Amino acid sequence: MNASDERTVSLWSDVDVVPDAVPLGRNEDFDAVVVGSGIAGMSIAYELAAAGQKVAVLDRGRIGGGMTARTTAHLASVCDDYFSELIGLRGEELARLYFQSHSAAIDRIEAIQTAERISCDFRRLDGFLFLASEKAAADLRRELEAGRKIGIAVEEVSGLPLARHADTPALRYPDQATFHPLKYLRGLATGIRARGGTLYSDTIVDKVEETDGGVRVGTNSGLTVTARWAIVATNSPINDRVALHTKQAPYRTYAMAFEIARGIVPDGLYWDTEDPYHYVRLHPGDDESDFLIVGGEDHKTGTADDADDRFAALTSWSRRLVPDLGAETHRWSGQVMETIDYAGFIGRNPGNERLFVVTGDSGEGMTHGVVASLLISEVILGGNSAWRELYEPSRKTVSAVGNYLAENATMIKNFAEYVAPGEIESVDRLRPGEGAIVREGMTKIAAFRGDDGTLYRRSATCTHVGCHVHWNSLERCWDCPCHGSHFAVDGTVLNAPAVSPLTEID
Ligand SMILES: Cc1cc2nc3c(=O)[nH]c(=O)nc-3n(C[C@H](O)[C@H](O)[C@H](O)COP(=O)(O)OP(=O)(O)OC[C@H]3O[C@@H](n4cnc5c(N)ncnc54)[C@H](O)[C@@H]3O)c2cc1C
Ligand code: FES
What we know:
3 domains; 26 strands; alpha+beta; D-Amino Acid Oxidase, Chain A, domain 2; FAD/NAD(P)-binding domain; globular; binds FE2/S2 (inorganic) cluster; binds flavin-adenine dinucleotide; Rieske Iron-sulfur Protein; nine-stranded mixed β-sheet
C-alpha cells in the first residue's frame, strides 16, 4: 500500500502506470536499485537505464501511486519560495543554478516525451505570478529584480484573464510547461523496461545499507537486492532518522478540479503572492471543455483537520476569479516537504559513497525529481555535477537557522502531547467512520471505527522516531506532523519515512 490507498483521488488517478508490475520474488542483483517509483525514482531509473545500467525500481505500493499521483504538475523553473529569498539564504550564483537546473529539468521532460513518443499532454506555456494584495507589491518588485539579476527573461505585465484582475500587476515567466503526470510516468516505465529495467510493486523496503563496494536493500519479506548503487527516492527518506529530517518539514496541500469552457482562461500557470499561495493550471478535457485545477490552503501536516473548510475557501477563491467556472469534478490532498533553505536535498546520503537520496521537493517536486535524475546519474556515471553544492544533502545553511528552529519546534510540541488527555474519553464514543486519540492509562491509542462498526486500535506512536500521530478525517489516515509519515486505519504505512506499521493494541 501507499498514498494511492488514501481516500481522495486526483484527476490523474484513472491511469494505472504499470498494471502488470509484481512484487520482488527472489534475491536479485543489479547495477543500480531505486527505492520509490514517483517522478524522482522513475526519472533516475530512466537515465541510468538509458546509460546502459541494469536497473530495478522497488515500490511499497502501486507504481507511481505516491505524491506524484496527487500533484498538479506545474513544470516551473521559478523558485516558489521566491528567488529574492533564495538569494538572501544561498547567494546569487546558487540561485542562478537553481533556475538553470529546473529549466534543464523541463527541457529533459520535453526531450524524453518526444523521444519516447509519450502522449502526455505536454505543452510549453507562460507562468504568471500575480499580486494577491497591495501589501505584497514590494515583494513582486523585489522578485522582478531578483529574477533579472540571475538572468531570467521575466517581465512585468498586467491584463490577467481573471475577474477583477485586469489591472493587477504580475510577473510573466516564459518557457514553463505542464503535462499529465501519470501518462508521463507510464511512458517512462515503458522506456525503462525497453532498456532491460525491472519495476517491482508492493515491495516494502525496510533497510538500505552500504556494503564493501556495493549496497544491500532489504525488504520486509526477507528478500534482498544487491547493487553497486542505491537511490532512496521515497519522497521523505526512509533511511534517515535525524540528519535530513531536521532540515525539512511536511505540509498538507489541497487541490480541486472544475469543468471550464475552453478559452475562458488561456492555458498557463498562475500562482499568487498569498502565503500559502494559490496555484492554478488547465488540463485538456473533451472537445469543448477543459479542467481548471486549483490548489493551496496548505498547513503543516497534522496541525489541522478541517479539509471541508479549506476546500470551501479554495472554491470561493476560484469562483471569484473565474465566475463562469463549471462543476467541481475532483478534490484531493497530498503532502510536500519544505526545506529550511528553499532548495531540495539531492546527492550522496550524508556519510555514504554509494547511497544517494532525493528529498525536499517543495511545491516544485516534479522538476525537482527530474533535477535529481540528471544530477545523480551524472555523479554516478561521470563523478560530478555542476549542481552538487546547491543540493548537497549534508549542507548546513547558517543563514536559515530561524527556519530551522521554527520547523523543529513541532517535534518538541508533539512529544508534549503524550502527557495530554485523549481527544475522547473512550473508544465507545466513536461513531462509524470516525477516528480519534484515546488515552488508556499511560497508552495513547489511535482508534478508528469502520463504517461496518469494526474497531481498529493502534498505538499513536509513529514508528519512525516516535512522534504522536494525528487523525486526518479527509483521507481517513493517521498523519505524523514530524516528518510526514501517513498510516492507514489498520496501521499500515501509506507514506514514508516510516517503514513499519503502527503497533496493534489489544
Ligand atoms: C496537491 C499537490 C500539488 C502539487 N503541485 C505541484 C506542482 O504543480 N508542481 C510541482 O513541481 N510539484 C507539485 N507538487 C509536488 C510534487 O507532486 C511532488 O513533490 C512529487 O510528485 C514527489 O515525487 P517523488 O518521486 O519524490 O515522491 P512520490 O511520488 O511520493 O514517490 C515516492 C514513492 O516511494 C514509495 N515508498 C515509500 N516508502 C517506501 C518503502 N519503504 N519501500 C518502497 N517504496 C517506498 C512510495 O510508495 C511512493 O510511490 C504537488 C504536490 C501535491 C501533493
Ligand atoms: S515521521 Fe518521523 S516520527 Fe513520525
